[in-house]
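$ run holo --ligand "BES" --emit tokens
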Amino acid sequence: MSLDQVLETIETDLPAAMDRLMQLLRYPSISTDPAYASACTEAAQWLARDLQSLGADAALRPTPGHPMVVGHIPGDGPHVVFYGHYDVQPVDPLDLWDRDPFDPEVQDTPKGRVIRGRGASDDKGQLMTFIEACRAWKAVHGTLPGRISFFFEGEEESGSPSLVPFMKENADELRADVALICDTGMFGDDTPTIVTRLRGLLGEEVVLKAADKDLHSGMYGGPSQNPVRVLARIIAALHDDAGRVTVPGFYDGVPDLPPEIAAQWAALGFDATQFLGDVGLSVPAGEADKTALEQIWSRPTCEVNGITGGYTGAGFKTVLPAEARAKISFRLVGKQDPHAIRDSFRTMVRNMLPDDVQVEFHPHGASPASQMETDHPLFEAARHALSDEWPNPAAYVGCGGSIPIAGYFKDILDTDAMLIGFGKDDDQIHSPNEKYDVESFRKGIRSWARILDQLSKM
Ligand code: BES
Ligand code: MN
Ligand code: MN
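-- output --
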């Protein structure tokens, strides 16, 4: 009965909830770019005020980088810590956006109404689903069904550099019976989804330098080293012909896929042709002996995220560049050790350098893969709650992306994490024209309300 009242409140309050999300989306909280540091702080302040309006003792908590936002609401029942991130990815290439990424708008599309703007799906829209569910619950009941802690980070999109020390220093405050994370997507439109494994991530920027200035490629080409060519050779050597990564020791700690997980995934009916077809591709390009789903969910990868060097402007310039750069990332699984892989990668690169070429490395995050314990009683309760809201029963799936905190909850706080999100594959996260379906937002809020209801009975 009272759950119905909460769901009704959610429907009535939806326009106001959308308006609150729009306010949050207006802050250009791009964490990787120092030019947006004050926007990050302002987004954090907005969140703290929003939590205060719910009765939380929320405050900004400084870190060497962008602030965390932490707030608690007392309540009878289990202690739940909810995590989300208020930072967003850079917006480039800006000319591919149909509108200002930070002037969000609700748009009608052939596939339904969407909220368009950077962060709409990753992760502002998603984190607001939980806050709004708590707001509706509190409006009906006056309290929450447990002690709820909110924990928002502003550096997730930059590899979470302040997270581990912060969690260690505030362990007693953040440790809970369960952690909830809303930063993942759904497996199809109708299937509510609990992510049970995430890949880890290691980022390395490689800078190669040769001559002490750019040179005329006719005057110097031949006897002079060209760092772009050296970099291309190194990058080409990172994979063998079967698509395996060649960094020595890279596969140490990569487990075989247990047959029961393989069977569970096979039953999901993932259509690789469709998945690739949706983005204009057709043939899986990863490890030759692995399925596309395995390549995303259970296998490690090495990708080049960007290369620069030499003349890239309009027209043509016969230059021999002094410098070349590449941003390279590794997705990790199982027990792969990001630090060992970083060392091995650097050694491999150094061993490939000819005379006159120097290398600099800039580290960008190093987080191991994580796997959730699904025998926590709340998992069954959450599956039940989700299946009540959506057409299909809830599925357990893997996720190719990375959310560093998921593993830290277990390792640092001994708190099991449950990842439930309502994003869609076509949300264009990290891309131009990011959106979040209004239905994802609405049913996301309703889903959390149902999960809170399950909590109230535990
Ligand atoms: N929310 C994503 C993770 C994700 C991606 C979940 C795709 C579900 C589907 C998260 O914000 C993210 O983008 N993580 C980064 C980590 C990084 C920038 C340190 C990632 O996976 O690249
Ligand atoms: Mn995210
Ligand atoms: Mn992201």
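-- notes --
The domain at 3-198+369-456 is CATH 3.40.630.10 (Aminopeptidase).
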